[in-house]
Specification:
By secondary structure, the protein is of the alpha+beta class. 24% of the residues lie in helices and 35% in strands.
Amino acid sequence: MARLDIKGVSKLFSTVKAVDDITLSVADGELVCLLGPSGSGKSTLLRMIGGFEIPSGGSIAIDGEEVIHLPPEKRPTGMVFQSHALWSHMTVFGNIAFGLKLRRLPKAEIADKVNAVLDLVGLGGYGARRPNQLSGGQQQRVALARSLVLEPKILLLDEPFASLDQHLRERLREEVRDIQQRVGITTLFVTHGQDEALALADRIVVMRDGRVEQADRPDMVYREPRTPFVAGFIGTMNLIDGEVQNGRLKLAGIDVSAPIADGPATLAVRPEFVRLTQANDAARDAARVHRVIDYGTHLMVDLELPGGERLKAMTAPAAGWKAGARVQLEPQELALYRDGVIAHRSATAAPGRGDG
């Protein structure tokens, strides 16, 4: 296991700052997901750790030793790319053994190491096959095995499942997490999939425009996002702009306590914390059910407020909401943002399942 310390790292491409003064530490055996949209700098940061890009400034240290001056093959890191990057003319065994042969290890030792890592990734007995005889998921396991067999201190994964279908992605990410925990290797995993990050990570680093917006445990990133960007990027979040006056934020259809100074604010509330009740015929501020999606375990109710704003509520299947119904809604747990930062968060409440 190993510790990774990144201090003040930046990367300029011409006049574009792809990574902007990032400082981050990753503990021994920790799995950290770098999460963000395209262009957020997450892959560039990973490539700088692996030595495939040279930082414009800052320090990258592994176990206290600076590695910026080292080429990729000299760093104690192993990188798995989205494209697999397997050699088609070699067998699975040959692909995995290649790095060990460069180290001039004895043949018997190479065979032992390759067979052990094949067993680790669930491909025991596949050594004689060619990459074109494997499924996409199997090829990605070979790519993972090729990195692990070199026993790196840091494992770097750059969106390794992006080209796979959803079912296979979900299965492989569970396998990767299991392997990572068994080996105990410090790991950085780049993804733009929020579900992947929430399922895999000990800690999520949300990036935007080359900077870190929030670095925290998955549950904290989901439940206590520090900025409107994080709130909107992780999970489903209703974000509605409004005006605070006299300690209340009022919109057509919404009236909530807002113990902050008067002025503009953004209301954030998750669908599972929107409670719905049937509106009476005289209610002028009632919302209208625009559409209902039945996911089996729950309903996702798409609502239209009297002012035209749209938001979603999650309810139990038995609630039976139908398009066209008029409802009253009450946020059970919410946050208010002002000037791009959190200004107020309500006390934790039980999710409002909208059952009335």
